[in-house]
Structures are given as C-alpha cells and as structure tokens.
Amino acid sequence: MNDLPASALHAPAAASAAVDDSNRGGAPTHSPAPARGLCTDCGISRSSDPKRCGRACQFIRPDYPLLEARVHGRERDPARPDELHFGPFIRMARASLRTPRIGAQWTGITTRIAERLFETGAIDAVLTMTSDPNDRWRPLPVLITSAADLAACRGMRMGYAPLLSLLEPARAQGFLRLAVIGIPCQVYALRALESELGFERLYVIGTPCSDNTTTENFHTFLDLLADDPDTITYLEFRADYRVELRFTDGRVKTIPFLDLPISKLPSDFFPLTCRTCVDYTNVLADITVGYMGGQGEQWLIVRNARGEELLGLLGDEVRTRVPGSAGRRAGPVKGFLANVERAAGGLPLRRMPSWLRPVVNWLMPRVGPRGLEFARTRVEMKALETVVHLRRELPRRLRAMVPAHVWALVAPYGLEARADELPRVAPQIDGSPAATHERATPQ
Ligand SMILES: Cc1cc2nc3c(=O)[nH]c(=O)nc-3n(C[C@H](O)[C@H](O)[C@H](O)COP(=O)(O)OP(=O)(O)OC[C@H]3O[C@@H](n4cnc5c(N)ncnc54)[C@H](O)[C@@H]3O)c2cc1C
Ligand code: SF4
Ligand code: SF4
C-alpha cells in the first residue's frame, strides 16, 4: 500500500463514492463519467457541466492553431527549426537536476518546479497525480497544498484518471493560483476552458505522453516482463532503445526494445485514443518536461515566458545544455509504418529474426536516431499511427481530429490527406461552431 500525501485530503471529493468504472481509474471525482467513445476521462465529463466536452476535447474538434496562439501568442511556425514536430517554443534544453530526487521518473525536474512554486509563494495548490493506495501503477488525482507532499507524486503511473475533475473543488476551496501537471489530453481540455475557470494564475507543467493504456492492460504487460511483476517499481522506455525496470529489492533490469513481448499483446492493448493522439509533446504547456530529446538526460521545451519563469525557479539546481542530434530517422520510420499498416490490417507484427536482433540491439543506440532526431522519429511515428488507425477504425473522424501539421509530418512517407479528410475552416473554441461545421458530438 502507498500512503496518500497529507494534502491529498484537501480534495473535498476524496470521501465521495468510488466510481464504478474500471477503465478510468478509481479517483475521487465530482460525479461518474458518462460513457464516451474516444475519451481518456480527463475529468471534464465529471464536472458540473459535462457538455463542455464538446469544446474542450482533443478527440472531438480540437483547434491547435487557435489554442497555440492564445497560450503562446502565436501558433507553431513550420519555418522555424523543429516547430513542425514539437510545437511552439522559445528554446529547448537537455537537462538534469544536480541532485536527482528519490522516486522521480527521471531526475524530478517536474515535481521540483512545482515545489519551487510553493517555496516562492507563487501558488496556492498543485493539481497532479499520486498513486492509488492499492496499486502503485494507478494514477489518482490530487490537490496538493504543500511542497513536502509533492514527493509522493513523483514517478510515472500508467493509465488515465480524471485530473480536471478537481478544478471545481480547487476553486471552491478558494485556490486562485494553481499549477497543473498534466499529460497532453488533460492539458488540451484545461487550455480550451482556461478562460472560464476563474483562476487568477495558472502554471502548466506538461509531460509528453504516448502509448498510454489502462492500468489493467499495463499490468498484463508487466506480467510478461518478469516472473515477479508485483515487485516492479519503475519502468521507462529510454532513449538508448532499452526499457529499464527497477524492482523492490534494488535490482535493475534493461530489455532492448526489439526483445519486448509486444507481439504477445492483444491488438486492443493500446486504446484508440492513444493510438490516434496528435499531441505527443504537450504543445499547450508552458514548459514540457520529457526525456525523448535528452540523450539519457531530461528534455525541456520552454514554450513561453511563463515556461522561462518556471525553469528560472530552479536556478543552479539544474544543469542545462544544448540538445544534440544524430542519426537518420527515415529508415526506422518507414519500417515502423509498414508494421503499423500490418497491425491495423489485423496481420501479425513482423518480427526481426532472432539471430539479427542482438546485432540491431547493439547498433541502434550507436547509429540509430539520437537526441532531437530520436524525438522527431517518435513524433513522426505517432503521426503515422494516427492516420493509419483512424482511417481503418473511424475514417469519418479524420477531418475533425487530425490537424494540418500532422498531414505535413506524414507526407514524406506517402500518406496524403484526401479532400474529405482535410480539416475544414478553423472551428471556434469559444461559443458555437461556425455554421459550416458539423456539431461536435462525443463519439
Ligand atoms: C503515460 C505516460 C507516458 C509518457 N511517455 C513519454 C514519452 O514517450 N516520452 C517522453 O519524453 N516522456 C514521456 N512521459 C513523461 C516522462 O515519463 C516523465 O514523466 C517526465 O520526463 C518527467 O520526469 P520527472 O523526473 O521530471 O518527473 P517527476 O518529478 O517524477 O514527476 C512526474 C509527474 O508526472 C505525473 N504523472 C505520473 N503519471 C501520470 C499519469 N499517468 N497521468 C498524468 N500525470 C502523471 C506525476 O503526478 C508527477 O507530477 C510519459 C509520462 C506518462 C505519464
Ligand atoms: S473532454 Fe474528452 S477526454 Fe475529457 S472527459 Fe470529455 S470526452 Fe473525455
Ligand atoms: S497518449 Fe495521448 S490520448 Fe493517450 S493518455 Fe497520452 S496524451 Fe492522452
């Protein structure tokens, strides 16, 4: 059992009835979530006005250009290096805390920034996830009111939980200056509704996210990775093409990506939401804290002045340098596309012959895409996956769900938008959609 951070008790709904919805994480919530098709239960559907999903949801009718302009002062500019892939930013860095924090996923930059916000008196509360007391891998939303309690939030959980269902309780408790740590689908809804939430100050610290699944599915995966899966305390897909596992007894095990038992997973292991998610790098956060472009360190994308302010809070605690970039992504991305097309067509994944795998496992960290090229590789793979899976499973959603920049990312690999797949006139986030638009209805 994990202990909840003390200030989790500040979430007023903590004692409310548990939600009978095993796909959504058993978090303290405002109300049960209405059934939705493409939904990662960000929490808006459990709020006092669930109809807001229609204008808040990344899976219904997203408008990234509008929100990028609103949050950062301008939308992504494909003419600037790397903005097509990573969204608007001022600068990127490869970074580590000089003193890594115990329990952190990497060195703990994310939660340390939030601690600093408390220490400098900038905020009243942080909205983030901790672990469910009965399952360390299950995320549980919490409102934290002291820096000390952030230690219990460090680390990654797999799955979704209704983070934003605690926005209204936060306001009800008088918290006007809030920091939110969230994954992209949560941050999209937060930004879409930001102007009507009534906070005086909002700091948004985002992490990248991909290949998420339900906590239940994730346990199936852990079962395939070790004889003692209940003792796994840490898992990360590292930039050196290996998965790192840590165990309760201090053991560390690494597994090359190619040796992972991916072909043993059921075809619906990853939900359609996460196979078709268009925002890998959390483009609407003030600062994105990930690892993909970090070559073994963390990777920071400072997106606006508030993001600079957040990074500045760390002072000398953080070591930063210019991110590197090496290798070429085209080959691996083409190979990935071929496999995604097979999988989407119901065919088994093509596995590399076992004699060749050790060679490629040795070669990839040395000659494969590294640093920013690795991050570009992963973003392009996600874009291809989005188009292939939506075409196969929900072709009518492409027009509404796939922004123009995704089509630009997939074009070099021979995927082009048909006329009926291209985004229509920009929708309106505030107010009703323009007359030419279909109504935004949750799937
Ligand atoms: C499901 C998932 C997939 C990810 N995939 C990638 C990826 O492909 N590439 C990449 O660069 N980075 C990815 N990340 C981010 C990465 O794992 C680290 O969280 C990030 O680099 C921050 O590390 P840190 O040491 O600074 O975090 P810490 O200081 O340890 O803080 C981690 C923060 O993340 C929050 N958190 C943990 N689990 C969840 C969850 N399920 N939902 C919402 N919030 C959560 C915690 O509450 C905490 O606030 C992913 C994160 C998640 C949750
Ligand atoms: S905004 Fe989207 S992800 Fe969030 S609860 Fe509504 S339908 Fe689900
Ligand atoms: S992959 Fe995308 S849709 Fe899935 S949980 Fe992560 S941000 Fe949300």
Describe the protein in words.
The structure is a single chain. This protein is α+β, with helices and mostly antiparallel strands. The chain has helices at about 55, 65-70, 85, 110-120, 165-170, 185-195, 215-225, 270-275, 305-310, 330-345, 355-365, 370-395, 400, 405-410, and strands at about 90-95, 125-130, 135-145, 175-180, 200-205, 230-235, 240-245, 250-255, 285-290, 300, 320, 325, 370. Helix 6 links the parallel strand 4 (about 175-180) and strand 5. Helix 12 (about 370-395) packs across helix 14 (about 405-410). The longest helix has 22 residues, at about 370-395. The chain is globular and about 60 Å long. The model is unreliable at about 10-25 and about 430-443 (pLDDT under 50). Bound molecules: flavin-adenine dinucleotide (FAD) and iron/sulfur cluster (SF4) (2 copies). One iron/sulfur cluster binds near residues 41 and 56. Flavin-adenine dinucleotide binds next to helix 4, strand 2, strand 4 and strand 9.
Topology:
Layout: H1 53-56, H2 64-72, H3 83-86, E1 91-97, H4 109-119, E2 125-132, E3 135-144, H5 167-172, E4 177-182, H6 184-193, E5 201-206, H7 215-225, E6 232-237, E7 242-247, E8 252-256, H8 272-275, E9 287-290, E10 298-302, H9 305-312, E11 318-321, E12 325-326, H10 330-344, H11 357-367, E13 370-371, H12 372-393, H13 398-401, H14 404-410
Parallel strand pairs: 2-4, 4-5, 5-9
Antiparallel strand pairs: 1-10, 1-11, 2-3, 6-7, 7-8, 9-10, 12-13
Helix pairs in contact: 10-12, 12-14
Residues 36, 39-42, 44-45, 53, 56-57, 59, 185, 189, 442 line the site of one iron/sulfur cluster (SF4).
